[in-house]
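Weekly modeling sync, notes
Attendees: AB, CL, MP (scribe)

Item 1: holo prediction request
CL wants a bound-state model with cytidine-5'-triphosphate before deciding which constructs to order. AB pointed out that an apo prediction alone won't tell us much about the pocket. Agreed to run with the ligand included and paste results into these notes for async review.

Input as submitted:
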Amino acid sequence: MLKNKHILLGVTGGIAAYKTPLLVRECTKRGASVRVVMTDAAKEFVAPLTLSTLSGHRVIVGTFPDQASSTIDAGTWHIELGQWAHAMLIAPATANVLAKLAHGYADNAVTTLALAVRCRIILAPAMDVDMWHHQATQDNVAKLKEMGYTVLPPQEGELASGLVGPGRLPEIETLVLSLEEILHKADQDLKGKKILVTAGPTVEAIDPVRFIGNWSSGKMGFAVANAAAQRGADVTLITGRVSLQTPRNVKRLDVESAEQMRHAVIKHAKGVDAIIMAAAVADYTPTRISPTKIKKEGRNGSTFSLELKKTKDILKQIGEQKNGAVVVGFALETDNGLRNAQRKLREKKLDLIVLNNPLEQGAGFNTDTNIATLIPKRGKIVKLKKLSKFDVAHQILDRVSKMV
Ligand code: CTP
């Protein structure tokens, strides 16, 4: 399945780099064309000459490869290779390179290329067990996953240091299979399609220091944006306040209130092929925002009332105007789910509604999984089992891609 595939291999400075010649050989044997870039530190573990001989191409080391030793332009090599590649694999990925990628550094050939490519990037971390378990490394890995990098977990076993635990580079066979799987799945069925996604909570100001909000983490909407971008769509993500990394190749716009989200959605809905509204939009907002902090002194009694007015339903407005776009909504229901969701589907003139219950174990706010039921305007209702939000996103997009 690697026949005629273009693979970039980034090699960084860990002991497992000594295995990369076998990796290059295995990929080329299966029909792939491999270009290798490596860091200076990686040269300590594997010779560039070995990798260039096996790949049949010069290896790039350093951000500014020497013209004389490279067949491609020293100034734009990262752009050229970025456009050429179908996938990039960084193996081994050291703790240092994970930290740099999580923060957008471009200080060597591998990190520069990782920033420049649009294709899928697979990371195969390999390091000592304590470095892998370190909170900083784990935080960086979590960030990278949110950004849309595929992270292959290191294998358990004896490490070069003599310690035992997770940290080994997966077997060459496993790395090649992962590459094959990703290249196979990366059918760009949404290429050329424009998709607008909303995510996260809205916050409605009461005064300069207080607001009404909700528990939405934004994870479901971000997963949809991430998955759609990986399937080739041109994705715009409009989000409320969340603490999530922006997925690679996604345009992100931050808003606060329901009204701001409505304006942003209407502005960006023009000409899109699909709109997927996963945001938890406030249904009510204070009738007035106090310009100064509301004080408790001088108030009688022990209760306080706040007058609220209804917000405009963004999804309903979009569903009514839709202009040919496929419109997908979410329904968060704690009781009578199916009936309520079907009513929303009808009333908001949607093509598909995704029903979930925040009270179910493994569904709802701040979890990484969801238990969703997909209810299309026409066709079969499908109750999905507990899946990662990323997998639920793909299930939704499987339906959307048939309609756009
Ligand atoms: N939604 C919206 N604008 C609003 C309220 C909701 O666009 N002002 C969208 C949400 O993004 C979601 C869908 O409507 O896709 C359903 O949201 P939900 O809160 O489940 O339902 P509501 O229609 O608000 O009804 P209720 O709160 O009574 O269940």
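Recorded for review: The CA atoms of residues 118 and 267 lie 26 Å apart.
Action items: CL to compare against the apo run; MP to circulate these notes.
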